[in-house]
Batch of 4 targets.
Target 1
Amino acid sequence: MRPCHMAMLAASAVIASACSHTEPKPVVRIVRAQVTLPESARLACPHPIALPDRDMTSGEVTVKWGADRAALLTCETRRAAAVAAVDAAGEDR
């Protein structure tokens, strides 16, 4: 009976060790990249083109003047947002 007892004990040890196997914890590495903004992005957008030195039709005013001002506003909004985002990223460190 002794050999059977030893075999049962050995089998129990193998089963128990198989159940208690633990996976190693994953290694997490966080790397922050240096954020740089090109100097050209810090420059203000160009001024709108000069309006002609004559009376303009209402169609000219609506199309040229309105599109010019809208483009300037869009450019300045994007430029300011880019600068603010990069500057804020630098403050988080």
Target 2
Amino acid sequence: MALAFRNGLRTVARRLQVRNYADAAKGDEMALTFAAGNKVFYDKVVVKQVDVPSMSGAFGILPKHVPTLAVLRPGVVSVTENDGKLNKIFVSSGTVTVNDDSSVQVLAEEAHPLENLDRAAAQESLNKAQSEYSSASNDKAKAEAAIAVEVAEEILKAASG
């Protein structure tokens, strides 16, 4: 009897450990909420695809994606809307959550459409951040400057093309 109980318990535990694709509530639809401290870009809008830059690598999200939680790195989030329009938005950092109902939340610290980025201002910010990194007098200042350099480099890359 104890053996049967243990085997039953193992079977249940294995089922709990299996990763499954999301069960979309409305077929193959994916609702996107994308917000930052400065603006709400999408509020539960159904979209085709979302591509995000994460600390573990960039990845694309489609309806029925495996539930996921990831940390955003500086870069471009690309949203393919249902009509095929591609919207590109630069994010400095944040999180992305893919839920089991195929909803997606992108919460960014700061976000701006690519067309609003100024290449000259981005280059100026990069130069300043690199100077601050070079002159940093302690580990905290050096770490903060390194983050500023990374963000400025990604803004410049996004603004350039």
Target 3
Amino acid sequence: MSQNDLARRYGYFLWTLMQTGQLDLDAPRGAQVTSEAVAQFIARVEPHWSSVTRSQSVFKLRRMTEILAPEKDLVWLRAIEADLRSEARPKRRRENVTTNELLQAGEALFQEAENASHFSPKKRACLARNGLMVALLAVGPIRHKNFGELTLGTSFRRLEGSWWIILEAEDTKAGRVDERQVPEYLNLLVERYLATYRPILLARQAATSDCERAQAKATRLLLDCSLEVMSGPLWIAVTGEPLTYSAVGAAITDTVEATIGVRLSPHAFRRAVRTTVTYSGGEHRGLTRGVLQHNSTRVGDEHYDSDSTRRAGLELTAIIRGLTK
């Protein structure tokens, strides 16, 4: 429990007083911590904070008040704190999210974007982008930095009719080339994103329906002729700029929470691989290490080079698809 955290929680309390016009800047230290003010504070934050956060905040409000005004009688606040603590129920964290759940969530969101004619073009484009991000990271769980920096024509390219993620050795933590073929069942999503939704995001102004259709048609014609020579960042923000590292993480985390109810960072997609393999691919010795490019120090374990990593990725995507059918 740091001093900064105590000060921050106390600041939340003072902020509620300010919002209701009750903050007295000339009041003695701790004087405004009254039963009425604390009750108003709890009522104000209840719709937005979990029971655990409310309990912890009142506990830290009491500790800060004791520091500021050690002579103050806070028996009544300890009673409130005890009640909140007894009611606190931590949200259940799911550590067993599987890769196939993430894939299905991404595909479903992309389909929602396709059907959401009542949304603006930019809104639909963002939904499609986020759905593809979740689906693609599920089947190709590379590291957050590499995923956010995927670039058309280099690290994300089309070769002989298939899409590939290709990371050079100097760009990977393992120091090895990492090549992953995007499974065929995601090709349609990739090409719809590139043909229709990425151009909308690249446009600085919101597109009209007629403009969107014309732009999509022109881009599809271009794609038919030059899919292999497209360039630029894969992930585009609504501003037309490349998505930043933090924006990629936020989009993925928020999307997973909105679709399956669990907040997962991009890194957690790698844990999902272990869960999936444990539940459904346990007979595939070394598969998790291959997919995640982990070096093993255990005697007898297979050392995965770029070719065997590619095979591990194909095995995983086959397992995932089998689970989603």
Target 4
Amino acid sequence: MLPSGEKLTQRPQSTGTTKRCRVHVDGRSVLSVSVERWEGDTTAEQVAQSALSVAPSDTKTRDGLYIYSSTGAVGRVDCPAAEARQESTWASVRVSRTDADADDMLKLVKEYAKAVGESSDCAR
């Protein structure tokens, strides 16, 4: 998924209810991942509306928890700690490659959402 290069760097950022990390290869941004807290009844379409590289009209999984394209995806995180606060947690991924595959983006956001759900931020 990442292009080849000589130097890989990451740039984490946190603002308000969003945690983001951008990955650069040789100084060029190639991957961005984020975790955001939303109101409890937020839908994937609402999250996709504000996400880059994915739109509410892109492919949606049957369960409605993920929306994805060849360059971006959003997905609901199973996060009991947030749900206890009447919030929902959403993961998003975005790549700069134009030759990326939509199915790969779905796999990536599912794995990322799973990892976030298993993190200390979402302790059960």
